[in-house]
Amino acid sequence: MIQAIGLDIVEVARMERDLRTWGNRFAERILGAEELAILNRRHDKSVFLAGRFAAKEAVIKALGYRLSERPAYRAIAITNDASGQPVLSLPDDIRAALGRARCFLSITHERTHAAAVAVITEDS
Q1: Which of 43, 45, 56, 61 is catalytic?
Q2: Which of 95, 12, 23, 103 is nearest to 50 (CA)?
Q3: Other C-beta atoms within 10 Å of 21: how many?
């Protein structure tokens, strides 16, 4: 059964502008170490960052009713499995708030925008 849904959209130009202005300091506020390593290997940094930012916002929105305070973006890690599916990793305290529930993610990129949806489900 679906427990919660989070959705977010990000303008790629905004990420490009922030990366140009703040450089890696901006990315380091959003991404964890593993995600930063992925970012540094990509040529489309602003598109990648927009997708990850949207996904983290979607996760935070979906988790909102289960959390007492908003987590830092860096605490939420999103990588990809071998097939390219986004994989969510959460710190133990946030993971505990999920209980038996699972969070599914989808990220999409277009030339000007990136969007993501997070769906929290729990078997009844």
Answers
A1: 61
A2: 12
A3: 9
Phi, psi for 105 (deg, rounded to 5): -125, 150
pTM of the model: 0.93
Token pair recorded at residue 56: 């983290």
Question: What is the tens place of the pLDDT at every residue in 70-84?
Answer: 899 999 999 999 999
- Cα–Cα distance measured from residue 29 to residue 38, given in angstroms and rounded to the nearest whole number: 15
Q: Are 52 and 109 in contact (CB under 8 A)?
A: no
Residues 6 or more apart in contact with residue 37 via CB below 8 angstroms: none
43, 56, 109, 113: which one is catalytic? Answer: 109
